Amino acid sequence: MADGAMDLHSVKDKLQRIIPARLRNRYGLGIGVFLLYVCFLSDYDLYTTLKLRAELSRKRSEHDRYERDIRQVRAELQELNGDLALLEKFAREKYLMKRENEDVFVLVAPEGKN
Questions:
Q1: Domains of the chain: which residue ranges?
Q2: Spatial separation of the C-alpha atoms in residues 87 and 100, rounded to whole Å
């Protein structure tokens, strides 16, 4: 019986050397389990949180880009609505519109040559 108690005591000593002192009390163990759960096991673990933050950053930059594009298009629209000659030039260049007595020739550069 004394031999079994010695083995148990030596195992306990080995565990005490392996486990840090802060985790040996119940509060340290509780905090450790809580951190393990929050960082790895919960629905919004550390990896998911970082991934969602990166996606949010990308979405914000896209939003800013779209806002700039909208401002630019609105400025062009206001400019086109104010000047009929510019509106006609835009329609001719962008949509290849023409008057009844005109012919439009579109010159396209061959591929591979710039």
A1: 16-95
A2: 18
With contact defined as beta carbons under 8 Å apart, do 97 and 91 qualify? yes
**Long-range contacts of residues 67-75, Cβ cutoff 8 Å, at least 24 apart:** none
- Buried b / exposed e over 20-58, threshold 16 CB at 10 Å, is eeeeeeeeeeeeeeeeeeeeeeeeeeeeeeeeeeeeeee
- Tell me which DSSP letter residue 101 carries: T
**Residues 11, 15, 18: CA angle, nearest 5 degrees:** 140
- pTM score, whole prediction: 0.54
For residues 8 and 14, is the Cβ–Cβ distance under 8 A? Answer: no
The low-confidence residues of the chain, meaning pLDDT below 70, are 1-6, 8, 113-114
